[in-house]
Design goal:
Blueprint: E1 35-37, E2 41-42, H1 45-55, H2 65-70, H3 80-85, H4 94-98, E3 102-112, E4 121-134, E5 137-148, E6 153-164
Antiparallel strand pairs: 1-4, 2-4, 3-6, 4-5, 5-6
């Protein structure tokens, strides 16, 4: 017995504009209390050396173990700005959620609460703490936190982003 000849279904045309990592959301879809985590990262001497090269920060506290010990540090201290960089929204899924409505990163602030050393594992997170409509736009405020592997809060800060509203 022969099977009837059928034509395979044509797949829909691929559209890169509809290829999203997560479903797109708007300012109005966001909620205070939502948390956007970044993957944990264990810092190495190579990370510190790369940041030192990029930043041109040559203070010995960042690379000279003996200097650091003589000045009360158990080991060289990871650059504070390098630690802050782990709060970049792009390290989380947040910009994937708001990519179509994102206008700009408005401001940031932070406090460095504890030293970070090579070998520490960092756990960054952004938590929405405020949603302020402003005409056709809205300001999203997030707390930015980083804990280490011992559960210590090593950085606490705030970011603000401007998004388009519906």
């Amino acid at each position: 017995m022969t099977q009837p000849h059928t034509t395979p279904a044509t797949p829909p045309a691929f559209d890169p504009d509809t290829f999203h990592v997560v479903p797109a959301r708007t300012f109005e879809d966001l909620r205070v209390g939502e948390v956007f985590r970044a993957p944990s990262r264990t810092l190495t001497d190579a990370h510190a050396a790369a940041f030192q090269t990029v930043s041109a920060d040559n203070h010995p506290v960042h690379y000279d173990a003996e200097w650091a010990r003589r000045h009360g540090h158990p080991a060289p201290v990871v650059h504070g700005l390098q630690v802050l960089a782990f709060t970049a929204p792009g390290a989380t899924l947040f910009p994937h959620f708001i990519g179509e409505v994102f206008i700009s990163f408005l401001e940031l602030s932070c406090a460095f609460l504890a030293e970070v050393h090579s070998g520490d594992t960092l756990y960054p997170a952004l938590t929405i703490t405020g949603l302020e409509p402003q005409g056709d736009n809205g300001v999203v405020t997030t707390s930015a936190t980083i804990h280490n592997q011992r559960g210590e809060l090593v950085l606490s800060g705030q970011h603000k982003y401007l998004l388009r509203r519906r």
